[in-house]
């Protein structure tokens, strides 16, 4: 007589002594040993899984209130530009102050070389650089240039374009033979 094949626990892989126990885990019925039955068999069937899910319970957050969209503001009808005689105005302001370029560079917040180049007219300052000079020297370097607003050409509702207005016709000249 041949020996019966030993039965193995489907969870831990140990040899089952006796008849074994049937446990339902995640809907599957498994034949397990006594130790695994002690560990997993007393749970309600289908409520516990030995496999980790990998997820933590989700936290619920109250949604942040979204800010109301602000209506689009139209661009200003002017632009800022540097005055044409900026070099003369800066040079006169530097002479009135009686300070050296090094001292001015620390007080104004621009480099010594940049202030020197602006005063000699070799460099046109940006708007932000001009504002720094305006604040310190209390002079006017920026002027507003107003733009002319052109109204868009409106097409009347009863307008019907002709073929000539729509099509771009090119006429090729024929070569004489």
**Beta-strand content bin:** 5-15%
Mean pLDDT: 80
Distance between the termini: 113 Å
Largest sheet: 2 strands, antiparallel
- Radius of gyration in whole Å, from Cα? 44 Å
Derived from helix and strand composition plus strand pairing, the structural class reads alpha+beta
The percent of residues in helical segments reads 25-40%
Q: In total, how many beta strands?
A: 4
Strand order of the largest sheet: 1-2
Q: Low-confidence parts lasting 5 or more residues at pLDDT below 50? A: none
Helix and strand element order: EEHEHHHHEH
Number of helices: 6
Label the overall shape.
elongated
Report what the structure shows.
- With 177 residues, this protein is α+β, with helices and mostly antiparallel strands.
- The protein is 28% helix and 11% strand.
- The protein has 6 helices and 4 strands.
- Helix 3 (101-108) crosses helix 4 (112-119).
- It is elongated.
Any key phrases for this structure?
single chain, 177 residues, alpha+beta, two-stranded antiparallel ribbon
Structure described in brief:
With 177 residues, the chain is α+β, with helices and mostly antiparallel strands. The chain is 28% helix and 11% strand.
Q: Helices, strands, pairings?
A:
Blueprint: E1 21-25, E2 28-32, H1 34-40, E3 78-82, H2 86-97, H3 101-108, H4 112-119, H5 127-137, E4 142-146, H6 163-166
Antiparallel strand pairs: 1-2, 3-4
Helix pairs in contact: 3-4
């Amino acid at each position: 007589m041949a020996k019966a094949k030993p039965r193995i626990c489907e969870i831990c892989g140990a040899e089952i002594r006796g008849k074994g126990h049937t446990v339902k885990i995640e809907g599957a019925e498994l034949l397990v040993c006594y130790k695994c039955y002690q560990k997993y068999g007393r749970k309600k069937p289908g409520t516990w899984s030995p496999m980790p899910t990998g997820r933590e319970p989700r936290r619920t957050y109250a949604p942040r209130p979204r800010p109301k969209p602000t209506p689009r503001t139209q661009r200003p009808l002017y632009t800022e530009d540097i005055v044409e005689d900026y070099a003369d105005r800066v040079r006169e302001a530097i002479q009135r102050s009686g300070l050296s370029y090094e001292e001015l560079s620390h007080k104004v917040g621009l480099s010594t070389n940049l202030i020197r180049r602006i005063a000699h007219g070799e460099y046109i300052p940006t708007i932000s650089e001009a504002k720094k000079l305006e604040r310190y020297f209390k002079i006017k370097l920026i002027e507003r240039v107003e733009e002319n607003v052109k109204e868009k050409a409106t097409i009347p509702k009863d307008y019907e374009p002709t073929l000539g207005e729509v099509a771009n016709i090119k006429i090729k000249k024929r070569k004489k033979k």
